[in-house]
């Protein structure tokens, strides 16, 4: 069962990130960039060297008159390419990145992920294999996948038939590992979105924030103290099926009045389609170029979501709410609606330091999060097929 990362683990992760993104750094560079003491840097570097995640290489000898005739030593990350898999409710996105986390190739297809688990996992393995061959790679060293439903942190099994019915009782980590031939670590997709924003997006300046994925479903993830909070069994952040009093819309889970049934891409498109006769729902823009009626509907939907989010803000006191997914990433009106409700219903003292913002990584946050965790392998693991 995964545990909350310790301060030492966070220090190592931060230094590894700096080494990767900098393409190699000296200990002095690390101390200067991180603001850590030299002793803290040396301790973390010793651990990373022992784990085989970095190595030391000599730099070129300095020339005459530079004050030093000895070569310097810098630290560089080692390891091969990694892969990220993003299973959405209606799509699959696969990418391969180099050891520095730079994506070198990706493929995306539309597929019914919810009801076709076997087909979706087969497609992921095939896409990854094809992409690997196309790039001329012998293998990938680590794979992280995100699925749009909760995974039990104790067993690695999907256990919520109301959210991801085609996957219930299955271990995606084990099944993907068997198909791909490399240990696969599996997370909830919103959790990966939060990790993407934490490492490379709007969450970089926040230790405590809430990430919300607003798309065909509604999911959320909590980052507390700079670490992902999963809860006792991995269900933390599952807000999509929160009941809204007075709402009767039928949800795919079989209940009525769920948040996801009222605030989702599909439901909003149905509403907008009534005012756009002659246009198919999927043809109507929901981005910042939307017409005034569509913008009003989007803003109202954002307010509904924001009121639910305000409860979480009162509970855990984050300093930011990062709104991603198809709705949060493409429309300011929707995010403004979320912001208005969050500011209105969150306690004034908590709201004073709280910002609501669009995800910087857009709809790529989940895939970016998968890559970021993969390059930091070994990642926290659970389930027989997870990475160690």
From TrEMBL:
Q: Name one Pfam family in it.
A: ROK
Q: Which InterPro entries match?
A: ATPase_NBD (IPR043129), ROK (IPR000600), WH-like_DNA-bd_sf (IPR036388), WH_DNA-bd_sf (IPR036390)
Q: Which family does it belong to?
A: Belongs to the ROK (NagC/XylR) family.
The name of this protein is ROK family transcriptional regulator
Q: Please give the organism.
A: Nocardioides panacihumi
Q: What is the lineage of its organism?
A: Bacteria, Bacillati, Actinomycetota, Actinomycetes, Propionibacteriales
């Amino acid at each position: 069962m995964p545990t909350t990362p310790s301060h030492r683990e966070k220090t190592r992760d931060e230094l590894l990130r700096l080494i990767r993104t900098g393409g190699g750094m000296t200990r002095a560079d690390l101390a200067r960039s991180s603001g850590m003491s030299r002793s803290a840097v040396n301790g973390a570097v010793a651990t990373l060297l022992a784990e085989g995640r970095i190595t030391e290489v000599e730099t070129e000898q300095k020339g005459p008159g530079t004050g030093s005739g000895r070569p310097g030593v810098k630290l560089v990350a080692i390891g091969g390419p990694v892969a990220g898999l993003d299973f959405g409710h209606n799509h699959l996105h696969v990418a391969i990145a180099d050891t520095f986390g730079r994506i070198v190739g990706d493929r995306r297809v539309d597929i019914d992920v919810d009801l076709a688990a076997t087909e979706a996992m087969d497609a992921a393995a095939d896409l990854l294999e094809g992409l690997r061959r196309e790039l001329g790679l012998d293998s990938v060293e680590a794979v992280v996948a995100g699925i749009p439903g909760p995974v039990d942190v104790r067993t690695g099994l999907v256990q919520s038939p109301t959210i991801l019915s085609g996957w219930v009782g299955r271990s995606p980590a084990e099944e993907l590992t068997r198909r791909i031939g490399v240990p696969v670590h599996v997370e909830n997709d919103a959790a990966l979105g939060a990790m993407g924003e934490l490492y490379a997006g709007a969450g970089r300046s926040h230790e405590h924030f809430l990430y919300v994925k607003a798309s065909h479903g509604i999911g959320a993830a909590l980052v507390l103290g700079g670490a992902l909070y999963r809860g006792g069994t991995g269900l933390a952040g599952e807000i999509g099926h929160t009941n809204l009093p007075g709402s009767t819309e039928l949800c795919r889970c079989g209940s009525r009045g769920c948040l996801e049934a009222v605030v989702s891409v599909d439901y909003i498109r149905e509403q907008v389609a009534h005012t756009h006769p002659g246009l198919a729902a999927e043809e109507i823009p929901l981005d910042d170029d939307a017409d005034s009626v569509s913008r009003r509907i989007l803003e109202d939907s954002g307010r509904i979501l924001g009121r639910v989010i305000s409860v979480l803000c009162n509970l855990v006191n984050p300093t930011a709410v990062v709104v991603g997914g198809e709705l949060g990433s493409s429309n300011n009106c929707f995010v403004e609606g979320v912001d208005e409700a969050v500011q209105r219903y969150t306690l004034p003292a908590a709201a004073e330091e709280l910002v609501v913002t669009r995800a910087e990584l857009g709809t790529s946050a989940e895939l970016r999060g998968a890559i970021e965790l993969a390059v930091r392998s070994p990642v926290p693991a659970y389930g027989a097929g997870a990475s160690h």
